[in-house]
Design brief:
Radius of gyration: 29 Å
Number of helices: 4
Order of helices and strands: HHHH
Largest sheet: none
Oligomer: single chain
Structural class: mainly alpha
Distance between the termini: 76 Å
Number of strands: 0
Amino acid sequence: MSLPMKSTSDSPSNSLESRLNAHPELKAKIESLLSVVENADGGLQSAHEAEQRVIEEIQKLGQSALQGWATQQNEEQRETFVKANAQAYRSRKKHSTGIPDSAKSGLRNKHLRKEREDG
């Protein structure tokens, strides 16, 4: 079963290089895989060593590709939600550090005094 692929035009803006530049992590993984294929460090002496390195690099490439996909999907879903729910409250950083300890104890003591007076 194959997945449908987005079609890309042959324009320079959609070239493989420009698309990879938009995903620097993915580009780095592909360059690393190419280094294995080219035996850039000269450390691969046997087919078994080369096979192991290629497998490792492809696994890293797959992880990076899926992470990029998930990030993009998350962003698209967030944008869709924000457009559909313009009134939705966006979380903001809290600026309050809470009630200082001395104020808490003062509130607690005030509450206890009131209970004693009522009781």
